[in-house]
Design the sequence.
């Protein structure tokens, strides 16, 4: 499993919409394909692991659970050294039933820093998506400026206009 996409994709793989939930890991077949498209084998153990770690990571990222909740995955993380013709190579030695969770937690850990976490929930209270902030200032708020950012700006504008209306101040209409 390569890249740094597993964590964000995983925590965004279940969203509840007004017409019901969309769960990309809902059926075993969907989960298998989802995992395979992200470099995993899609075994039963990986499917179970992905389903188990997803709500724990989401709760930790939202601040609803302490990072100790990640211990079942962290406690099995090991690296072993192997001699090669080029010197020493390090390999992960993780039980098959924890590989997806371990990979997601490694990605989560790489996004933690002195300026705060680079992965966070979208600031729109009606949105359930998470985002990874790659900006220099680490100040991104919305998973999508076009959707959530514009909605937030429209709400603020509406609130200001209602405030002006109730204060009796006439507004200039264009």
Sequence:
């Amino acid at each position: 499993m390569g890249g740094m996409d597993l964590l964000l994709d995983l925590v965004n793989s279940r969203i509840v919409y007004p017409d019901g939930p969309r769960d990309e890991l809902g059926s075993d077949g969907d989960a298998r394909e989802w995992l395979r498209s992200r470099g995993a084998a899609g075994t039963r153990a990986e499917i179970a692991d992905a389903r188990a770690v997803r709500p724990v990571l989401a709760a930790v990222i939202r601040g609803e659970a302490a990072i100790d909740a990640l211990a079942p995955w962290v406690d099995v993380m090991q690296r072993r050294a192997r001699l090669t013709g080029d010197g020493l190579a390090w390999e992960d030695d993780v039980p098959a039933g924890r590989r997806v969770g371990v990979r997601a937690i490694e990605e989560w850990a790489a996004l933690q820093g002195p300026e705060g976490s680079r992965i966070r929930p979208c600031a729109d209270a009606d949105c359930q998506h998470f985002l990874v902030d790659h900006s220099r200032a680490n100040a991104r708020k919305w998973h999508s400026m076009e959707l959530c950012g514009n909605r937030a700006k429209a709400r603020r504008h509406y609130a200001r206009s209602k405030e002006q209306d109730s204060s009796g101040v006439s507004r200039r209409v264009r």
